[in-house]
Design a protein that fits this description.
Elements (H helix, E strand, L loop, with lengths): L21 E3 L2 H9 L6 E2 L2 H4 L9 E2 L8 H6 L4 E5 L5 H10 L4 E4 L4 H15 L2 H23 L5 E8 L2 E4 L5 H8 L3 E2 H4 L9 H7 L3 E6 L4 H13 L2 H4 L2 H4 L3 E3 L2 H4 L7 H13 L4
Parallel strand pairs: 1-2, 1-4, 2-3, 4-5, 6-8, 6-9, 9-10
Antiparallel strand pairs: 6-7
């Protein structure tokens, strides 16, 4: 069963209690909180380095994997937002709760997760108008794109996550993988689940995907793509794949597929739809 929001505390502020001094330990959620009409007293550095947010007087309180909890506590927040996907934030939450600070950890892997988080956020900010302005139109656009995709032939795809050490195949455990599934694509990892553990070129060659999508992680995109080329791209068997031969290897933009797209989820779906079904041969 899909859990839209993971609440890791029994000390949640009541939803009708406005949160005014908020600290966010994840850049994506910092952006979403601002989208919900909130302000921030403290953020991790990825809010600036990855999201490029205009944070006014918000204090940088370390990184999302190593937040400075002394600084967080010193800011005297009435709510701290954390990510359930970052292992280091579990212990951080325990420390903050021990100091009497209200905390909530969210997991956002799909647009529905984002919508559920924004439901909470806009209740905390008292800006339900912003929920109505963002979520229903986004849902309508995504539903329309998915319906259009149903009328298309289902392409076979390989989704790779590239990093400085090489690459891994990804399935619906990745936000791009979820979107590809929603658009009717057949992911090679669905046919060969072992690819999720070990990148087998033999299995990839057997399935010969129509499209190869690459999502880049880490701070150095060029280094990650170079490592992918060294570990996979130079192999003659890889070069012989139909997707490679016909120029259907596509590096996904980081702002729409590596980072959480937040209010731009429909744009992410539209981007994939255009690449898959509207790209001229």
């Amino acid at each position: 069963m899909k859990t839209f929001i993971l609440l890791l505390t029994a000390l949640l502020l009541p939803l009708n209690a406005l949160a005014e001094r908020v600290v966010s330990l994840y850049g994506s959620f910092s952006e979403a909180w601002l989208e919900a009409g909130g302000t921030l007293a403290g953020v991790t550095d990825d809010a600036v380095t990855e999201r490029g947010l205009d944070l006014l007087d918000a204090q940088i309180i370390g990184t999302n994997k190593a937040p400075n909890l002394e600084l967080v506590i010193a800011l005297d927040p009435d709510w701290v937002i954390l990510s359930a996907d970052i292992a280091a934030q579990g212990p951080a939450m325990q420390v903050l709760q021990g100091a009497g600070i209200e905390c909530t950890a969210f997991r956002v892997d799909t647009w529905q997760d984002y919508a559920a988080m924004m439901d909470v956020f806009t209740q905390k900010t008292g800006r339900r108008d912003l929920y109505e302005a963002i979520i229903p139109p986004m849902e309508e656009n995504i539903s329309r794109i998915i319906e259009q995709a149903k009328a298309q032939e289902s392409p076979k795809v390989l989704l790779l996550r590239a990093y400085s050490g090489g690459a891994k195949a990804k399935g619906a455990d990745n936000l791009a993988g979820v979107m590809l599934r929603d658009l009717g694509c057949v992911n090679v990892t669905d046919l060969h689940p072992s690819l999720l553990e070990e990148l087998s070129l033999e299995a990839i060659v057997t399935e010969d995907p129509d499209w190869i999508f690459v999502s880049v992680m880490g701070g150095d995109e060029q280094a990650a793509l170079h490592a992918l080329n060294e570990s996979l791209g130079k192999n003659p068997a890889y070069q012989a794949l139909t997707a490679v031969q016909e120029g259907r290897v596509h590096v996904l933009p980081r702002d729409l597929f590596h980072y959480k797209p937040n209010a731009r989820w429909a744009e992410s779906y539209g981007y994939l739809y255009e690449v898959l079904f509207e790209t001229e041969e």
